[in-house]
Amino acid sequence: MNDDLAAMARSIIDANVYVTLATASQDGTPWANPVFFAHDGYRDFYWVSSPETVHSRNLAVRPRLSMVVFDSQVTPGSGQAVYMSATARQVTDLEPALAIYPGDPSRGGRPMTADYLSAPNPYRLYVASADDHHVLCPRETGVPCSPHGLSYDHRIAVTP
Predict the structure, then answer these.
(1) Which helix (H) or strand (E) holds 31?
(2) Hey, what long-range contacts does 146-149 have (CB within 8 A, 24 or more apart)?
(3) I need a surface site. Which of 21, 116, 143, 155 has the fewest CB within 10 A?
(4) What letter does residue 78 receive in the DSSP assignment?
């Protein structure tokens, strides 16, 4: 089952272009923000933001975050997502990272240059390295799942 769930996690990540970042300010105030992303090996997730945005300021003081990739267009009750815990940072070595971001042109991202992502321009490249990946344990609504015996939504760890 875990091989199937890992394949599902890869499929969800590959089929979507936005990841929702969940950050917290220094005093713990939560903030969620979707960003266009590209990934490297399903572990490192790259995006472009201004250091002045709320999520970037939050990450400057608290680099730990949660992320979720999901398709918001599926029928209610049938959705799946990939949930991740990660540590983020601003990318300083841009050239290798720009070989990854923005990903395949068919995803719709526009190519970036190191100059565009450096001062005095207002944008920077960020990366979050996921420590873990989880998906919802698949089960029929109202029926306990066979591996865990739970009849409510619960996450299980996968390695995509």
Answers:
(1) strand 30-36
(2) 147/1
(3) 143
(4) -
